[in-house]
Design brief:
Elements lengths: L1 H9 L10 H11 L3 E4 L7 H9 L5 E4 L9 H17 L3
Parallel strand pairs: 1-2
């Protein structure tokens, strides 16, 4: 995830990270982001994930594919950037 954070910061995104969904929920409530990017294991607890989503119902959630960490870094980054831009363009 360090690569993902650095990749997005270099493209002028404001990036916050959290290891635990409860911490991410607090960050969402405080910062009201347009978009949250979640790892594939985020949905392991459906109750916690739903609470996270309800922290800001307007926020888009992008789930990373399970093999994201194993994909070729530059191509995975560009694919992710494309997905982000498409999601954010629907909010305008």
């Amino acid at each position: 995830m360090a690569y993902l954070s650095a990749f997005l910061k270099r493209r002028n995104f404001e990036v916050y990270t959290a290891k635990f969904l409860s911490d991410a929920t607090t960050i969402v409530k405080c910062t009201r982001p347009c978009l949250a990017i979640c790892g594939s294991t985020t949905q392991a607890s459906s109750v916690a994930f739903e609470k996270f989503r309800q922290a800001d119902p307007r926020m888009q959630v992008l789930l990373l594919p399970a093999d994201f960490h194993a994909a070729e870094a530059s191509q995975a980054g560009m694919d992710l950037l494309d997905r982000i831009q498409r999601l954010l363009s629907t909010q305008e």
